[in-house]
Amino acid sequence: MNLLDDAVSRLERWQFLDAIAEPVRKATHAVVKPRLIRNLLSGIPTGHPLHPVLTDIPIGAWTMASLLDLRGGKASEPAADLLVAAGLLAAVPTAAAGLNDWSDTFGPTGRIGLVHAGLNSAALGLYTASLVARRTGRRGAGCGLALAGLGILTASGYLGGHLSYSKGVKVSHTAYHEGPTDWQDAIAESELDGGEPQLVNLDDIPLLVMRDGGQIVALDNVCTHAGGPLNEGTFEDGCVTCPWHGSKFRLTDGAPVYGPAAAPQPSYETRVQDGRVQVRARV
Ligand code: FES
To answer: In what order do the strands lie in the sheet with 267-273?
Structure first.
């Protein structure tokens, strides 16, 4: 284990952070509950999480601002100041999307997310102070505050990478579920008569198969958001709601209709042959 891994592992064990996280999580859930806000911040319109895309703007703007500061010279001062201000503006929706993503994490992952948010808030404070210093003629202080902010932002970015690539936050949990491209036998049609969702294993992929109205539907049973078991969810209005964090997917095609899931649930074509339901991946 290298030094950075060791440091992150220590942060993951800071259980005292849970007492801070819980009220923040509750407040965030209350604010993001309306469908429009939840879906937008979760990334449903784009099919990908919003937060990682937005982070490029403040990180890029603030990095360029410090480069211009280090280059020096009167000519580059207005551009550097503009970049600091632009980064501050972009940080607001970036933080909102990140808070939405974090609010569905728990335990060690939630603790790292909280430290990530704390560092970002500190960086935001430093850049705000930097802008004020620049506007009040204290350019040296403004440049120094921006550099300090960039250092904190770098540490925070490392934790953000850890959350995505090591902890799989907002990574589709069906990313490697390709499913059969040829028709495969799944279940006897008669087993669907009760209307209950049935769990079927197909090439090690758990599928949820059921009747929805007159149609037989089949979805990957592993929620794309964080792996929740959809067959244990609730079924209503042609949709299934995941029991873990409330993502809602349309049964006919797996489209997400309510976050936090951004990726659609893989759905399968179905047909009946000799009383048996067969499925295959949509091509
Ligand atoms: S696992 Fe989070 S909503 Fe399904």
So the answer is: 184-188, 276-281, 267-273, 215-220, 205-212, 198-202
For residue 228 and ligand 1, the question of a CB distance below 6 A is answered with yes
Q: What is the pLDDT of residue 1?
A: 65
Tell me how far apart the alpha carbons of residues 73 and 107 are, in angstroms, rounded to a whole number.
48
Give 52-95 pLDDT, tens digit per residue.
Answer: 999 999 999 999 999 999 998 899 999 999 999 999 999 999 99
CA distance 249 to 220: 11
The two beta strands, 256-258 and 248-250, are antiparallel
Rg value, the chain, Cα: 23
- Per the CB < 8 A criterion, the answer to whether 15 and 233 are in contact is no
For residue 80, the CA-to-ligand 1 centroid distance in Å is 42
Helix (H, G, I), strand (E, B) or coil at 114: helix
Give the atom of ligand 1 at the shortest distance from the alpha carbon of 223. Answer: 4
- The per-residue pLDDT of the chain, averaged, comes to 95
145 vs 156: CA distance, rounded Å: 16
Q: Is residue 218 within 6 Å of ligand 1 at its C-beta?
A: no
Nearest to 144 by CA among 124, 159, 130: 130
Encoded amino acid at 206, one letter:
P
- Closest ligand 1 atom to the C-alpha of 227? 1
Which are the contacts of 25, defined by CB distance < 8 A and separation ≥ 6?
Answer: 102, 103, 110
